[in-house]
Amino acid sequence: MQLTDAREAGLIKQVEELYLSAFPKEERKSFARIEKNSKNGGGEILAIKNSDGEFAGLAITVCSDDLVLLDYFAVAPHHRQGGIGSRALRALTERYRGKRFLLEIESTRVAATNHEERRRRKAFYLKNGMSNTPFDVNLFGVEMEIMVNACTVKFSEYANLYRRLMGDGCLEHIRLSDTAPANGAK
Q1: Is the pLDDT of residue 67 over 90?
Q2: Residue 183: is its pLDDT beyond 70?
Q3: 103: which strand partners?
Q4: Is 144 helix (H, G, I), strand (E, B) or coil?
Q5: pLDDT at 98
Q6: pLDDT in tens, 9-20
Q7: Distance between CA atoms of 40 and 57, rounded to whole angstroms?
Q8: Own/partner long-range contacts of 160-169 (Cβ < 8 Å, ≥24 apart)
Q9: Are strands 43-49 and 2-5 parallel, antiparallel or unpaired?
Q10: What SS3 state is found at 162?
Q11: Phi, psi at residue 112, to the nearest 5°?
């Protein structure tokens, strides 16, 4: 399993196709914006290759100071259930060692038609070393849980990462959610 810059590896089209098919429209940013952010050094667009060198998935990150947000992560359908997702997540945390690594998942605490899928996704991340923060967010109208890898992140730091990526105007679309348990334990 290998992580590689998608543009350098000539895999940007495969990454974009998987991105468009794997994520709901309401959760996707413009791929042009993602590419621009990557070209400006604000993150990476990574292709995941299996041991045979075949395209197997994507990881798109946003970086600001010592924070790295795994913004999008998907394994290609025909490569799922083989452990590549766990290996890729370990490779990502190793790649960003020394930085605070976080991600967002659709909330498991709200009613949803894909509730079981959300629960499995959260279980995957918990099994692979991620843990919950004491806050959830409403991100552009979508309830999200924030997970971290062996670090702490404050809501203000999380919101500031988006402000740097998208400008001050985005802050009106990012707020603390009331779905987190009152005691902060997750």
Answers
A1: yes
A2: no
A3: 70, 147
A4: strand
A5: 96
A6: 999 999 999 999
A7: 23
A8: 160/64, 161/62, 161/64, 161/67, 161/69, 164/42, 164/64, 165/37, 165/42, 165/62, 165/64
A9: antiparallel
A10: helix
A11: -155, 150
